[in-house]
Amino acid sequence: MRRLAVVKIPRHIGRRQLSAIASIYKYQKQKSPISMKGKSANFQRRVLAVVAKIPRGQVSTYKEIARRAGNRLAYRAVGNILKKNHDPKIPCHRVIRSDGMAGGYNRGARRKIEILKKDGVLLK
User: Fold this and answer.
1) Are the C-beta atoms of residues 76 and 115 closer than 8 Å to each other?
2) CA-to-CA distance for 102 and 124, rounded, in angstroms?
3) pLDDT, tens digit (0-9, with 9 covering 90-100), for 25-63
4) Residues in Cβ contact with 6 at an 8 Å cutoff, skipping those fewer than 6 apart
5) How confident is the model at residue 122 (pLDDT cuts 50, 70, 90)?
6) Can you state the angle between helices 75-84 and 62-69, rounded to 10 degrees?
7) In the annotation, is 92 catalytic?
8) Residue 61: strand pairing partners
9) Exactly one of 92, 95, 96, 102 is catalytic; which is it?
10) Per DSSP, what are the bridge partners of residue 65?
């Protein structure tokens, strides 16, 4: 049986604040920041596997990643999956837009460009 912690709550904390605190605590207890449930879980795993195979010094586009993962029209979904990924083993910074621009990055676009320059990649 699971034991519950007894916490004394000060009277000045209202229900809204208590609800916000509870939701933060619940979020911290989650194991993975990326939801791996349902049909999209398989696509997420394939996207991350494809991105993990991009060698240093090379880049790929969101559209190409979507095609290799099995859904050529899901390039926006690829961007959302990579935005939520914080695993340093997955080189999300090596995925760029089809027009040659850097695109977004979950640690900031400037940081993405810096990392790509260190990898030896020149962008528009």
Assistant:
1) no
2) 8
3) 655 544 444 555 566 789 999 999 999 999 999 999 999
4) none
5) confident
6) 100
7) yes
8) 96
9) 92
10) none
